Recover the amino acids of this structure.
């Protein structure tokens, strides 16, 4: 049985009258990775700060490594085993990269602080610039140094708040590759991001949040639950009569036609894909090509945020699956999708 | 290495690396040292200046009540001792400015660069962090003041001779600078911590914190105007009041320095 590293149960956080986080629940197993996805002000950073023992929840409970975070002694123990990459690198600009890391290695009480600093400066390709003050560093270098700082003490859980925010594509890729390597090493990752591709690449599961938890699942399951299985069929042309014939097939849940392209949402697509093609061919439709129409994470995200805005008064089904009603939208071609 | 020691070392390194802060503090120390030294040199060079003022004569009479040995001394010595004692009290401004400057620049600097959050994720306790920052700041402010005062004594000795040093830097002066300097530095530091948590830039923090200098300015004005002349009893009473104020201010500082408050309340 896998070990549960993070357990969040009905946690809310209020700052005065402002409700930043509303009764969210989720968990992350050892070696797992979760991305918190949501718009600005959705409570992602506040959630991470509660998990990193910086803020206390107003309601609900958090357990990290099985320890409740109620007492300061428990929080102190947890702090030794977690690392946080903050949204802003937060470096000492007048100090060198070497000293920036050495200070933290000593704060963590490492037995050989210099060795740990050297290891991570080399791993993040900053060794040659170790004696430069960090004010002279590029944004990407600062971010890599901040990552090194979060890893110096070999934490079991790494929290990453917007790890590639504001970086140019090359710097962002270098950071993502490094995080991917950490994930492959079996580190437990919890990240917040706006970057949907990053979330999909680095996280096993995605939690869409907007103050409350809107959805929590793997990207594949989120697609299935929100949009079902869809296929796109390019034809030479479909007549009204042929379309009506298709509508009569019981395993087709939804159908849409745009010019010569058919979008179909099927029940049990693995079983029924071939039956659709047969029906089309038998009905005299000339099929040019067929492909699975995968909803992008962006579609899922935007749909959830849209639904959340529409159903703001409906309480969430926090913890698993999709929260809120209104799933299974009318099938329609998605934006940015043209015929090849 | 203990975490408090790690923080102290880092604070001292940060303060020494802040050239603006270091140079302005050194400049102020030199000004406070050179002004009375120059005045003493003028009195030594032209003895007529030593008894030309009625208010000065009243102050000298007060001085002689405090130090009867000066009855026999020439006017030049009496006037120089008076100047030296008047200006000793100005050194009490230095620990406030030093501690306030470095604490506000340290805390506001950490807020501006957002470097405080990664520190708070480490196992360092709020107490260790505040104590470490405080110790670093107080050590710098106090050592700067002591060094400045030592330089002051040496230069006065060089300009006015050993007799002025003997009477000018008596028990009152030594108690005042030796005992009150760290207590005032702690007050400046605690105020700096509290004020820094509520303001966005270190200049505003220093302007607000500068109000702490006012009681010292009152003492300087009172003594120069001949209203009173500070003795050892006054210094001991001031020390007790400062200890009480230090405890209050540091307790408030501890409350402000809570992780949750730093993350959510600090602006």
């Amino acid at each position: 049985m896998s070990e549960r590293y993070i357990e969040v149960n009905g946690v809310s956080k209020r700052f005065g009258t402002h409700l930043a986080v509303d009764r969210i629940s989720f968990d992350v197993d050892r070696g797992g990775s979760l991305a918190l996805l949501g718009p600005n002000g959705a409570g992602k950073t506040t959630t991470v700060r509660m998990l990193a023992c910086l803020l206390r929840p107003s309601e609900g409970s958090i357990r990290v490594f099985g320890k409740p975070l109620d007492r300061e002694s428990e929080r102190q123990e947890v702090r030794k085993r977690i690392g946080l990459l903050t949204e802003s690198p937060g470096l000492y600009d007048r100090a060198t990269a070497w000293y920036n890391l050495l200070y933290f290695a000593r704060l963590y009480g490492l037995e050989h602080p210099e060795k740990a600093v050297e290891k991570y400066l080399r791993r993040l390709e900053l060794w040659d610039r170790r004696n430069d003050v960090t004010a002279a560093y590029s944004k990407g270098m600062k971010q890599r140094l901040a990552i090194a700082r979060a890893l110096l003490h070999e934490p079991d859980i790494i929290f990453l708040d917007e790890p590639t925010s504001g970086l140019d594509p090359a710097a962002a890729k270098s950071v993502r590759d490094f995080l991917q390597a950490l994930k492959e090493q079996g580190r437990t990752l919890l990240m917040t991001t706006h970057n949907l591709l990053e979330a999909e690449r680095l996280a096993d599961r995605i939690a869409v949040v907007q103050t409350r938890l809107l959805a929590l699942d793997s990207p594949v399951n989120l697609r299935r639950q929100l949009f079902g299985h869809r296929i796109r069929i390019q034809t030479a042309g479909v007549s009204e009569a042929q379309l009506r014939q298709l509508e009569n097939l019981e395993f087709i849940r939804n159908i849409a036609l745009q010019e010569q392209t058919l979008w179909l949402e099927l029940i049990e697509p693995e079983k029924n894909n071939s039956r659709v093609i047969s029906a089309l061919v038998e009905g005299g439709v000339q099929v040019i090509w067929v492909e699975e129409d995968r909803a992008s994470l962006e579609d899922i995200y935007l749909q959830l945020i849209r639904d959340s805005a529409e159903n703001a008064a409906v309480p969430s089904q926090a913890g698993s699956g999709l929260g809120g009603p209104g799933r299974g939208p009318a099938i329609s071609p998605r934006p940015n999708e043209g015929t090849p | 290495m203990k975490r408090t020691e790690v923080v102290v070392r880092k604070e001292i390194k940060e303060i020494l690396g802040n050239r603006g802060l270091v140079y302005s503090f050194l400049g102020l120390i030199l000004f406070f040292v050179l002004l009375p030294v120059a005045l003493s040199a003028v009195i030594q060079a032209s003895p007529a200046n030593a008894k030309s003022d009625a208010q000065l004569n009243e102050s000298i009479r007060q001085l002689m009540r405090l130090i009867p040995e000066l009855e026999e001394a020439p006017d030049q010595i009496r006037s120089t001792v008076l100047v030296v004692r008047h200006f000793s009290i100005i050194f009490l401004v230095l620990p406030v400015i030093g501690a306030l400057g470095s604490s506000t620049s340290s805390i506001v600097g950490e807020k501006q660069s957002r470097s405080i959050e990664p520190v708070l994720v480490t196992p360092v306790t709020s107490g260790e962090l505040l104590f470490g920052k405080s110790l670093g700041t107080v050590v710098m402010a106090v050592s700067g003041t002591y060094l400045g005062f030592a330089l002051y004594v040496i230069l006065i000795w060089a300009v006015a001779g050993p007799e002025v040093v003997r009477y000018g830097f008596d028990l009152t002066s030594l108690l005042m600078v030796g005992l009150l300097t760290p207590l005032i530095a702690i007050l400046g530091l605690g105020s700096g911590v509290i004020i820094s948590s509520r303001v966005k830039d270190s200049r505003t923090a220093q302007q607000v914190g500068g109000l702490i200098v006012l009681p010292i300015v009152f003492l300087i004005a009172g003594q120069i105007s001949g209203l009173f002349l500070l003795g050892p009893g006054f210094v001991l009473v001031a020390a007790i009041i400062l200890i009480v104020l230090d405890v209050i201010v540091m307790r408030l500082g501890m409350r402000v320095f809570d992780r949750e408050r730093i993350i959510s309340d600090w602006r």
Summary: Residues 154 and 165 of chain B are 9 Å apart (CA to CA). Chain B touches chain A through 26 residues (CB under 8 Å).
